[in-house]
Design goal:
Helices cover 45% and strands 14% of the residues. The strands form four sheets. The protein has a five-stranded parallel beta sheet. The protein is an alpha/beta fold. Helix 10 (237-248) crosses helix 12 (275-291). The chain folds into two domains: 1-232, Rossmann fold (3-Layer(aba) Sandwich), CATH 3.40.50; 233-353, Magnesium chelatase subunit I, C-Terminal domain (Helicase, Ruva Protein, domain 3).
């Protein structure tokens, strides 16, 4: 779809309704197994529909693993879980070459045995519990969607998503993800505690013999079509510029230029977000608009995805840690500080209507 001409307005509305309806059905099916976590589920869908990867951060027992496996079931996708441990090797993820004897000719030849990364949905469980050497085995797969072994490229099945989990509390014996690898994740998704009513429902469900079953809602082919539809969603220039202002306000000034950061960021930031943040804000905004039944991206769509896009792409300094200021606090202030261009908004409304 992305290679063809833009769809007509009527066709666009049909596509929006189709995507919105699919998302509602997916949420309904996931809700059969996972209680609450509506925002987390929506952010997961945005990652899936934009060819992005997600990092789920939360304490143990919040159903992160269950959520990922359930989403894979509803999408009829192949799912593999990789438990990251200190002794895990790169070949345990990507696969390895073995010597095999050809029974016909008697000659020995090398054969590549695929690892667990060759699936549609990969759950990298507790990704920070393995050394950087093994963590880096996912970099090529996440960015290029293929694995290189013995000088040969092996394509990964499509669609392909890496959804990693991480425990924010216990850091003893862990290996923090390098910034380059963190940047490969579209979203850093915070998984919080359930409400009192949700926890009551969780306890009732998990302590009885009754087990719910999820139905398949989408196929791999349909997910690929939705990914193309997301790319076709139009974005007005003023919305793109608004996203750029958010990202560029986190960066240091070039030599001879005034510092673009507001004081509250300049005092607490050690490093700002790169161009991937701008790209992901727009892509995620497109998917957010579709999921909410709109054919174009509004500034509110950008605001809705700014926290998960930026929270792992800006680094706070010692002063922020000493004052108890988190990246989420700074991003919230940034959203209040960077205003939408009212003049551009009115021009855009005139064009859209």
């Amino acid at each position: 779809m992305s290679d063809s001409s833009p769809p007509t307005p009527d066709a666009s509305m049909d596509l929006v309704k189709e995507v919105s309806q699919a998302a509602s059905q997916l949420k309904e099916q996931v809700g059969q197994i996972v209680v609450g976590q509506d925002q987390v589920i929506e952010q997961l869908f945005i990652c899936l529909f934009t060819k992005g990867h997600g990092l789920l951060v939360g304490v143990p027992g919040l159903a992160k693993t269950l959520l990922v496996s359930t989403v894979a079931q509803t999408l009829s996708l192949q799912f593999n879980r990789i438990q990251f441990t200190p002794d895990l090797m790169p070949s345990d993820i990507t696969g390895t070459e073995v010597i095999e004897e050809n029974k016909t000719t008697g000659h020995r030849e090398m054969r590549f045995v695929k690892g667990p990364v060759f699936a549609n949905v990969i759950l990298a469980d507790e990704i920070n519990r393995t050394p950087p050497k093994t963590q880096a085995a996912l970099l090529e797969a996440m960015q290029e969607h293929h694995v290189t072994a013995g000088g040969m490229r092996h394509a990964l099945p499509q669609p392909f998503f890496v959804l990693a989990t991480q425990n924010p509390i216990e850091q003893e014996g862990t290996y923090p993800l390098p910034e380059a690898q963190l940047d490969r994740f579209m979203f850093n998704i915070k998984v919080g505690y359930p409400s009192a009513d949700e926890e009551l429902e969780i306890v009732k469900r998990t302590t009885s013999r009754q087990k719910a079953e999820v139905k398949h809602v989408l196929t791999a082919e349909k997910v690929l079509q939705i990914q193309d539809v997301v790319r076709d969603v139009p974005v007005a220039d003023h919305v793109v510029k608004y996203a750029l202002r958010l990202v560029r306000a986190t960066r240091f000034a070039e030599k001879g230029e005034p510092d673009p950061r507001p004081d509250f960021l300049a005092n607490y930031l050690r490093w700002g977000a790169g161009p991937r943040a701008s790209q992901n804000l727009i892509l995620a905004g497109k998917a957010h608009a579709l999921l909410h039944g709109r054919t174009h991206v509004e500034p509110e769509d950008i605001q809705a995805v700014t926290l998960p896009v930026l929270r792992h792409r800006i680094l706070t300094n010692f002063a922020a840690e000493a004052d108890g200021i988190s990246s989420d606090d700074l991003i919230t202030q940034l959203l209040d500080h960077i205003k939408i261009d009212a003049a551009s908004d009115s021009q855009a409304e005139a064009v859209l209507h």
